[in-house]
């Protein structure tokens, strides 16, 4: 089987996978972004499955193949962000797509040529094309490095703040996805640069690029099928009970047990206030309650309609509201109250406080203290 046929199979599988993920993810912003990324990778793969025929008949697609990769690193970052950050995306996040549109604008003289002129340009302007290609890939490598820093910093900030609304399996998936995808983009760009500076490589760098895309699509397909908990619901929302009956159908945790532990949980959170510990984890609270982590997760999902992230932070926000309303705390800064309430990130506290109350902490203090 030739590589072109293999790429063509990957293209069709990627499109089907993206559409299926999109259809099942109406409430999942993260999965929609992932579906878009898979779809774009598939299109990139499809452009090479019969590259000579496609480029010969539709030369504009060569420019599309040059510019689409500018979306891969930003979409990787936005996907990871949507998994870790519960606050909604804003219009400003579309600025992450700016490099793609700038690349399109930079190629506008090429796009303005007729089909015949494009083909002639590809043949006669080879030296110019090589210079452009090296600059293009160099800028891409810089972009990837920038987004690698942004994405890894986001993960570390999330981990250090201990705002763990997701399981270890899900967190491991975030690490795997981030490092694998960013490494793939870097290897692909370096391979193409090596080609244009005439380095002798054991494999055609363009084939390497599309083999990485192909492997990426197949691995994602396998992960989605084998880890429905990771992709079955939106990790960054409070909709933690989606398909909960199916997830806990074999847990053996009955309604009477849930009611008993729910009462104990309320007493635990009220008296011992474990939520004030910034590094508290689902396993630690489950241990205090004398219950397995799985059953504790089931308890808050089914009885409270919350995931662990929302459960803990609802107590933290209530604690912060009480402190903000107390005139005896007027000498404390907002940040101090955030820390005293179990948060160790001002931005996380501000965004969650506004999410729960509809106003900023300072506005809440001025209205109710």
Written overview of the protein:
The protein is mainly alpha-helical and 369 residues long. The chain has 2 domains: 3-231; 246-368, Arc Repressor Mutant, subunit A. It has 20 helices and no strands. It has helices spanning 3-23, 29-49, 51-57, 60-67, 72-84, 98-106, 108-111, 115-124, 126-161, 168-196, 205-226, 228-231, 244-247, 255-271, 282-288, 293-304, 308-325, 334-340, 346-357, 361-368. It is elongated and about 80 Å long. The N and C termini lie far apart (73 Å). The model is unreliable at 161-165 and 232-243 (pLDDT under 50).
Task: Offer a concise description of the structure.
The protein is mainly alpha-helical and 369 residues long.
Q: How are the SSEs ordered, and which strands pair?
A:
Layout (H helix, E strand, L loop, with lengths): L2 H21 L5 H21 L1 H7 L2 H8 L4 H13 L13 H9 L1 H4 L3 H10 L1 H36 L6 H29 L8 H22 L1 H4 L12 H4 L7 H17 L10 H7 L4 H12 L3 H18 L8 H7 L5 H12 L3 H8 L1
Low-confidence stretches: 161-165, 232-243
Query: What would you report as the Rg, rounded to the nearest angstrom?
Result: 25 Å
Major pleated sheet: none
- Number of strand elements: 0
**Structural class by secondary-structure content:** mainly alpha
Which whole number gives the mean pLDDT? 77
Question: How does the overall form come out from the CA principal axes?
Answer: elongated
Total tally of structural domains: 2
Helices and strands, in N-to-C order? HHHHHHHHHHHHHHHHHHHH
Straight-line distance between termini:
73 Å
Share of helix among residues? over 70%
The number of helices is: 20
Strand content is under 5%
